[in-house]
């Protein structure tokens, strides 16, 4: 039932966002690879299902993130940057976080993002560009996540972690009495369980918690 409601939200949001942008159905059809407006009309009425890849195309055409189009409100607005009139703090967007190199010393800086000053006062932050599809459909390849640097996290948090000396990875954390599990949103990827001993010996190291997602196209 929840999946049906999400899809109904999707069709409704497509129509509302198109109207908000004063975009015609013909234009949206052209931007998303459909032959004419009739296909868009059917989609907006919920008469035709669309694939995950098409959701990304619609999101790009309508200048929002896939999550916003689906109606997910986690982290509030994913594409909202510092509100107008509020002072912001610029942080670096990293292309990768390499093992063995302090974040402060990372030279793989590919862009910058701005966060509210109020947020910046709560800790040290960096941004990371996501590579790969392991966290789809919530976090897409190319999205940017805002990360608060910390070495501990709560059950269910989305974290940035390093495992066995590899580069940092984005996963959801699940805690057990005898260890932890790093979970991908994409069911094609199996959860990775690490015993308490594994955490110490591999090691598995949490370097930050994802606090915001900003979709990029």
Q: Would you kindly provide a written description of the structure presented here, covering whatever features stand out?
A:
This protein starts with a helix and ends with a strand. It has helices at residues 2-20, 25-32, 37-44, 52-61, 66-70, 117-120, 196-201; strands at 88-94, 109-116, 125-129, 144-149, 158-163, 169-176, 179-183, 192-195, 204-214. The model is unreliable at 1-6 and 73-86 (pLDDT under 50). The protein folds into two domains: 2-70, 434 Repressor (Amino-terminal Domain); 88-214, Umud Fragment, subunit A, CATH 2.10.109.10. 28% of the residues lie in helices and 28% in strands. By secondary structure, the protein is of the alpha+beta class. Strands 2-1-3-4-9-5-6-7-8 form a nine-stranded mixed beta sheet. It holds the Pfam family HTH_3. Residues 14-69 form the HTH cro/C1-type domain. GO terms for molecular function: DNA binding.
Brief rundown of the structure:
The chain is an alpha+beta fold. It is 28% helix and 28% strand. The protein has two domains: 2-70, 434 Repressor (Amino-terminal Domain), CATH 1.10.260.40; 88-214, Umud Fragment, subunit A (Ribbon), CATH 2.10.109.10.
Write the layout of secondary structure elements.
Layout (H helix, E strand, L loop, with lengths): L1 H19 L4 H8 L4 H8 L7 H10 L4 H5 L17 E7 L14 E8 H4 L4 E5 L14 E6 L8 E6 L5 E8 L2 E5 L8 E4 H6 L2 E11 L3
Helix pairs in contact: 2-3
């Amino acid at each position: 039932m929840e999946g049906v409601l999400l899809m109904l939200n999707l069709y409704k949001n497509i129509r509302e966002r198109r109207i908000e942008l004063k975009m015609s159905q013909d234009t949206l059809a052209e931007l998303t690879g459909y032959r004419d407006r009739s296909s868009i009309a059917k989609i907006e009425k919920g008469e035709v299902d669309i694939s995950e890849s098409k959701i990304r195309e619609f999101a790009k055409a309508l200048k929002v993130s896939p999550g916003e189009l689906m109606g997910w409100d986690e982290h509030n607005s994913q594409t909202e940057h510092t509100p107008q009139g509020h002072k912001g703090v610029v942080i670096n967007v990293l292309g990768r976080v390499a093992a063995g190199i302090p974040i402060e010393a990372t030279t793989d800086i590919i862009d910058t993002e701005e966060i509210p000053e109020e947020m910046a006062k709560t800790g040290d932050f960096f941004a990371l560009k996501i590579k790969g599809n392991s966290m789809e459909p919530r976090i897409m390849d190319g999205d940017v996540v805002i990360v608060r640097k910390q070495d501990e996290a709560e059950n269910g948090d989305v974290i940035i972690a390093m495992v066995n000396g590899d580069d940092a990875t984005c996963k959801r954390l699940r805690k057990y009495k005898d260890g932890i599990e790093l979970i991908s949103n994409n069911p094609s990827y199996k959860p990775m369980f690490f015993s308490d001993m594994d955490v110490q010996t591999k090691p598995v190291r949490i370097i930050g918690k994802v606090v915001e997602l900003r979709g990029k196209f």
